[in-house]
Amino acid sequence: MVQVLEMIExxxxxxxxxxxxxxxxxxxxxxxxxxxxxxxxxxxxxxxxQRFSQPGRTSRDxxxxxxxxxxxxxxxxxxxxxxxxxxxxxxVYALYISPGLIGQGIGRALLGAAHDQMKGQGFEAxxxxxxxxxxxxxxxxxxxxxxxxxxxxxxVYNDITLTEVRYQRVL
Length: 171
What we know:
This protein has about 170 residues and is of the alpha+beta class. Helices cover about 35% and strands about 35% of the residues. It contains five helices and seven strands; from the N terminus they run βαααβββαβαββ. α1 (about 10-25) packs across α3. It is globular, with a radius of gyration of 15 Å.
């Protein structure tokens, strides 16, 4: 069983490990392997510390904590999409679970807590972006009530362009 808590500075290294290992597991065969191989926990820790201590930060971070510390992480806040969201819309920026623990309800717990906090902040809907070829993530979000809304955007990873699809659900 996990407990969902506000992320604190002491969680940064664990969250960076979850994020990097999550990327390397979830995006193998989708994102160029050279990009995934270049990712390091140390590099992510530096970026995460800088973002976490940024004054006026509007994003929120929650961690799922098990017996041995953080095992999952979600980051969310106001919609920041280049494709207009309309209305009072929040956005899930990132959701990662320790790869060996996927399928145990940790992602659902984090997503539910984020939805509750977004509703509490007055958001009426939530959006998120999923790579077109990440079918496992698409199924997860569809089971959570998200539907593709037709918006797409491209990201470039080591000169390879990959398309993301936006998903949306009412809170």
